[in-house]
Amino acid sequence: MKNLLLLLLLVLGGLTAQAQKITVTGRVVGASGEGLPGSTVLERGTSNGTSTGGNGEFSLSVAPEATLTIQAIGFKAQQVPVNGRTTLPDVQLVAAAQDLNEVVVTGSRASEGRSNILTTAPVDVISAREIKAYAQIDVAQILSYVAPSFQSSRQTITDGTDHIDPASLRGLGPDQVLVLVNGKRRHNSSLVNINGSIGRGSVGTDLNAIPTASIKRIEVLRDGAAALYGSDAIAGVINIQLKDDSTGVTASSTVGQTTKGDGDVFQADANVGIGLGGRGFVDVSGQFQNHSYFNRGLPDTAPLIYLGGSGGQYPASANTEQARRDLKAQDDALVKQNGFNRNDLRVGSADTRNYGGFLNSEYRLGGGLTAYLSGGVTHRTGKSAGFNRLPNQPTQSDLTIFPNGFLPFINTKINDQSAIVGLRKGLGGFAADLSNTFGRNELRYDISNSVNASLPQGPGIRNQTEFYAGTLIFSQNTTNLGLARKFSEVGPLATLNVAFGGEFRVDRFQIKAGEPNSYINGGRLIGTTPTASGSQVFPGYQPTDAVDKSRTNVAGYVDLESDVTEKLLVHAAGRLERYSDFGTSVSGQAAARFTLVEGLSLRGSIGNGFRAPSLQQRYFTNVSTQFISGLPNQILTVNNENPIVRNAFGGSGQQGFGVGALKQENSRNYSLGLTARVAQTVTLTVDAYQIDIDDRIVLSSSFARSNATVNTILGSLPVSRVQFFANAVNTRTQGLDIVANERLVLGEKSRLGLTAAANFNQTTVRSFNSTSSTINNDQTVGTGNLQNTLFDRQQRTRLESGNPRSKINLSANYNYGIFGIEARTVRFGEVQYKDADPARSFLDQTFAAKWITDVTLSAQIIKQVSLLVGINNLFDVYPDKFIQNPRNFETNFSVDPTLSYNSTLDNTNRGRFVYQANQFGFQGAFYFARVNVAF
C-alpha cells in the first residue's frame, strides 16, 4: 500500500502543467459602502469559493480568465470577470428581495457544488455569522440550537461524559453520525459512554475540540451516506469547513454568567489570514475558553447525616416518633457544629478550560500541483463532581481524613491533535486528490478529594486523597485517493459526473492503567464488613483492563451523478469495505431530484449502510461506581472478547453468558421530500425519512448478583453487577424535517430574515436479538431474569424517547443600518423516563415540552468593531422536576415502614437531583456580551 501511494504521488507530481492560477483579492460592500461579511464569492462553473471576512474582504485563487459570482442574503447577485486582475475594486451589491441558497459540497462528489435546495438530499448550512450570533460557544451546543435534527445536552455526574457531550442526529446515536473536516474523516473520541446518559454504550466525536473561531461554515447532511463516506454515516454527515481567508484579522471576546451568579464564561479568539505571494494562504485560528460550573442541586433531605445508616435513614433502634425526633435533634446539632452543608452535591456542568489552535493552508507548488495542510491541537481540562460520601458511610469514606464525608472530583485532561495533508492536481481530465488524515484523542483521569477506603488509615499513615486513575487513547490514520470529472453530453445524458477512489485506514485504541492505589483492595475492614476498593467515585483502570488494539480498513468507492435532463438529476454511489477484525461490507445508494414545475421539485433516496463496532466497544473494560435507586454499586463493564461474555454457562472451565462476537450494524435508509421556491424570497424543504437498523450495538443493562446464574459467573470478583456490549436490538427511526426561509428587503438599509425549522422523529425497538443460550434459557420469574436484563425497559426508553422526539426552531433577524436584532425560540419536545422494573412503574415520568427563547442586540460601533449583548433562555425556563415522594422529606418521623423515609421511592437522590438534562439542560437564564473586531 505504501509503495502504491508513493507511485501515485510521483505520477501526480510528474504530470504536465495545468493553467496557472492567480489570487484575486477584493471587498464586497452594500449601498452605503459598509462591508458585507459572510457574502459568498464563487468561481463560476466550479465548487471553488470562499466567504467574505468581517469587513467584507475576500481572497480567492482562480483561473486568470475566471468569472466570479458574488452573492449575499438580501442582495442581487453580481457576475464579475477577473480578466487577469489580482485586485478588484469594491463590489457594491444592490439590495433585492432575493434569498441566497447556499452552495454545498457535502452529500455528493460532483466537481461542482449545488444550491442546497437543488441537491438530492437535505443539507443544512450554518454560517460563521450564525455561529457568532448567540451565546453558545461550543460547536455541539451551537448545532443543538440551530439545527433541529441535531440534539446535544450537557450531562452531569456521569464521569467522562460530563466532559465530552454526547450528540445525536435524526434521533440516532452519537456513533451513527460521521464528522468530516474539510471533507476528510474526523477521528472519534477515546471515551465510551457507560453511565446512565443519552448515548449510553456509544462512542462519538468530540465536536468541541474544534474552536469556533476556525470555522467558516458547517454543512449538515440529513441522509444516510455510508455508500459515500463509509462507516458511521447512518444518520448523516456533519462537514466542518475551516476558514480560508488569505487577508485580514478578526477577533472576538465573550463574557457572561447565569442570572443566579454562576456558570461564568470567558472566551477570547482570533483568526489571521495571511497571503503567500499570490500562490496560496495560511489561515490560523486560536481560542481560549473558560467555563465555570453551575450548581442546581437542592439540599439533602436524608433525615440523618452523622447518626443514621448509609442512606441517612433512621436506625431500627429509633422505633418511636419521639426517639426519632430526639435523634434528629442530635444530628442537626452535629450538622451545625461541624458546618456541614446539606447542599452537598454539584448538579450542573463541569468546570472546563480550553486552549485550542487550528491551521488551514494551501500553496500552489507549480506545474498545476497544489499542496494543502490543515489541522489543530486542543488541550482541555475539566473538573466535575461525583456523588458525595457521607460521614455515616464508613465503608466508602474515612473519618480520619474526612470527618464530614467528602465530595469527590473527577479531573480530566483531554488532548486532541489532528492533521490533514494532501495534494491536488489534474490527471487526464480528472481532478485528483491524494490526502492523509491523522487524528488522536487522549482522555486522562485524575481523582481528587477522594480516598481508597480499603487502604489502612490513621495517624502516621500516608492518607492519600489524589489518584491517577488511567488514560484512554484513540488514534486514527486515513489515506485517501479520490478522482472526479464532469463529462458533458454523454450519450443521452446532459452531464455525467464520475468520481471514484480508495481509502486505507488504521484505528488504534489504548487503555493505560492507573496507579495501584487507585484500584487495589487493601483489605481494610469495618468490623467484619469489607470496605470499598479503589479511589472513590472512579476506581482506576487496572492492569487487566489495559489494552492496545488496532485494526485496518481498506475501501473502494464509485460515485455517479447526472443531469439526465434539465428536470431530472440522478445520483448513485457504491462502496466496498473490508475490516481486518470482522470482515467485508457493501453499501449502495440511489437518489434523484425531479422538477415538477418551476420552483417545485421532488427528491428522494434509498440505500443501505453499516456501522462497524468501534474498538472501544470491542475492548473497553473497567469498574465504575454507579448509583442505582440511590445506592452505590460497583459495576464491571466487561469487553465483548472477555470469557465472561463469550464462554457458555455450564460444564467445565470459565462460566459466561455465551454471547457472540460483535458484528456490524446494518441499516436501510429511505427518504422522500419536496423543495420549493416561492416569489424568489421563500424557500421550503420538507423531507420524510425512515432508517431501519439491524443488530444495533448497545450496552446491556447491568446483571445483578441477585440472579443465581450471574452470581456464579462473577464468582469472587469484587463487583455487584456486570454489563457488556452486544448486537442486542433492531430499531426503526421515522421522522420528518421541515425548513422554511424568507428574506425580505424593507428599504435601502433595512433587511429581515425569517426561519422556521422543525424535526419530528420516533425510534422504536422492533425486536431483540440474543444468541446466548445462557440468557435465552433463564426462565426466572419476575424482572430479574437474564432475558429481561439484557435490554430492560429503562434502556429501551432511553433509546426510544430519552431525547426530544421533536424540536421546532423559529428565528428572525432584522438589520437597520448599523443596528441588528436576533430573536430565536426553540421548542424542545417531551422526553420520558421509565424504571427498569415494571413493578416500579410509579417512578415513570414524562417531562413536558418547553420553549427556550434567546435575544441578541448588535451594533456596528465603528467600521472595525461591533458589539453584541443578549440573553439566552430569556424567561428562565427549566425542565419539569422529578416527582418527589411525600415520604422523602427531612421532617418525616414516621416509624411505620410503609410510611417512613425511603430514598429509593423517587429519582431525586434524597431531594438533591431534581432535573433531567436530556432536553436543554437546566442552567437557566444566561446573559452575555461580545465584542467583534475585524481589520
Q: Could you explain the architecture of this structure?
A:
This protein is mostly beta strands. 9% of the residues lie in helices and 46% in strands. The chain contains 11 helices and 45 strands. The strands form 8 sheets. The protein has a 22-stranded antiparallel barrel. A 5-stranded mixed sheet has the order 10-15-16-13-14. It has a 4-stranded antiparallel sheet with strand order 3-2-5-6, with no helix packed on it. It starts with a helix and ends with a strand. 51% of the residues are buried. Residues 1-19, 97-101 and 110-115 have low confidence and may be disordered.
Descriptive labels:
935 residues, 22-stranded antiparallel barrel, five-stranded mixed sheet, disordered N terminus
Radius of gyration: 29 Å
Query: What's the overall geometry?
Result: globular
What portion of the residues fall into strands of 2 or more residues? over 45%
Class of secondary structure makeup: mainly beta
Task: Give the low-confidence spans.
Answer: 1-19, 97-101, 110-115
Percentage of residues in helical conformation: under 10%
Number of strands: 45
Terminal Cα separation, in Å? 47 Å
Biggest beta sheet summary: 22 strands, antiparallel, barrel
The DSSP helix count reads 11
Mean pLDDT metric: 87
